[in-house]
Structure formats: C-alpha cells, structure tokens
Amino acid sequence: MPSSLGVSRRTLSRWVTSFNERGIDGLLDHPRMGRPRKISPDKGKEYRELIQHPDKANEIHWTAKKFHGYVTKELQDDIGYRTLLRWLHEEGFRLKVPRPWPNGQDEEKRQAFVEQLRTHLKDPEIEIWYLDETGIEGDPRPRRRWAQKGEKIRQPYEGTHIRMNVTGAVCPRTGEFYALILPHSDTEIFQTFLDQANQDIQFERKRILLICDNASWHKRSSLNWGRFMRIFLHRIRRISTPLSGSG
User: Fold this and answer.
1) What is the largest CA-CA distance in the chain?
2) Tell me, what's the pLDDT at 37?
3) Is the pLDDT of residue 32 over 70?
4) Which of 109, 105, 103, 106 is nearest to 236 (CA)?
C-alpha cells in the first residue's frame, strides 16, 4: 500500500496519526520552518528506484557511502552525506544482511515438489515428517579486553572441539516432535536415530514419508529406514514402490 502511493510506511503512519488527532485538517500542508529540503519528491522517487534496482547503475548492492558517491559524482547532485543518510532512514530503508540463496534452483521442479506434497497432505493414509540436524558449538569465544600495548594475552583452550549434535523430526499435522542429542553426524549415528524413532514414535497412519536434505549419511544404501519412506528435497519420487532399505 505505501509503495503504491509513492511514500514510505513511516509517512503513511504519520498521516493516519494526524487524521486521528485533528481530522481532515491534520492532512493539510502548513508552512514549515527551516531550510527547504534538498531532496525533492521527484528526486526521491529517482533515488528509491536506484536503491531498489542497483543493476540500473551497474551495481550489485548499495551502502550509504557508495550511494552518496554515485549521486554526487554520476548524477551531479549537491547533497551532503548526512542529508542523504537521514533521507534513507525517513524513507524506511535499513541495512540488512542478505539471506544466502543458492543459484541453479530449478523452479519447475520446486513447484512440482510442492504440488506433490499438497497431494500427499490430502491423503488420509499418508503422514509427512520433516527431518534435519543441527550442531551446537560449546567452545569459549575470545572476547576483547583491555591490556597493555605489546602484551600478548591468551585464553586457555583444551585443543578439542566441544560440540553436540541434535537430530530431529517433526510432524506438522500433529505437532509431534522427536529428537535425539548425539555426539556427531554420520551413517552409524543416523541409523541409531532411525532405529529409536521407529521404536518410540506411535505412528497413526499407514504410510510415513520422511523428507530429508541431501546429507551424505542420508543416502547410504545400507540404511534401514523402518517404516519411514524417504523423500529427498532435490528430486521427485513416486512412493507407490517401496524404496530400498525400507521395511
């Protein structure tokens, strides 16, 4: 909604507050004190377009300093750095760390996988579980501290990693969660998880699908999956034929 009006969410929120306090009079423009702004609405629109689409300036991303250098050198705009920085904040822009996203994703296969899951979710005989692992590091992290110039400071370290792994699976339909704390991840450890999960979980439906990522220990032919029928995220499998290693 704010973008369709050409204003930031902050500006729209200020309009709503002014209207609630003073009615329609709160939306009227009044003479403002101080110097006029250097960034006009037209110029602001141009800046927003550039920030949201840096490729138009042959850039991959912007920082405030990089963008200020571009508008002063390439666009020849006489705008101070602090003015530009204040405008960025007023327009709702924030520095964010991008989420890693792998290239080469096959969107057609991804969509086919989603449609396959939707079909399975409608089947009253199929239960879907999702599996994953995570590792927790327990090594002490060095912290900055005051010391004399030239003094070498050390932090005791045993020379071995303190690490624990958690392997778990969740069933979204019921909310049931099952996990084991394990020393590491490999084929033998994963088989231990499968054995315990098959023993401890009281499955309610006939066919149990376990969706896994492509970790090497998930793909060993020697694994006994018990009642689980595995589906890997990177491929589409038919489940009408039992998979090797499943019981």
Assistant:
1) 79
2) 60
3) no
4) 109
Confidence of residue 243 (pLDDT cuts 50, 70, 90): very low
Q: Are residues 21 and 119 in the same domain?
A: no
- Domain tally, the chain: 2
Give the residue numbers spanning the domain of 19.
2-27+35-90
CA distance 243 to 206: 15
How many CB atoms are closer than 10 A to CB 22? 11
Specify whether the CB–CB gap between 95 and 67 falls below 8 A.
no
Indicate if 48 and 122 belong to the same structural domain.
no
Whether 212 contacts 231, CB under 8 Å:
yes
What b-and-e string marks burial along 155-167, b requiring 16 or more CB atoms within 10 Å of the CB? Answer: eeeeeeeeeebeb
Neighbours of 43 (CB within 10 A): 16
Q: For 213-242, what is each residue's pLDDT tens digit?
A: 989 999 999 999 999 999 988 544 444 444
Q: Which two tokens stand for residue 173?
A: 């339909």
User: Are residues 172 and 228 both part of a single domain?
Assistant: yes
Helix (H, G, I), strand (E, B), or coil: what is residue 129? strand
At 181-191, the pLDDT tens digits run 988 889 999 99
Q: Is 80 within a domain?
A: yes
Lookup result for tokens 């704390």:
181
Q: Supply 193's token pair.
A: 């998880």
pLDDT higher than threshold 90 for residue 70: yes
pTM: 0.52
CATH code, domain carrying 176? 3.30.420
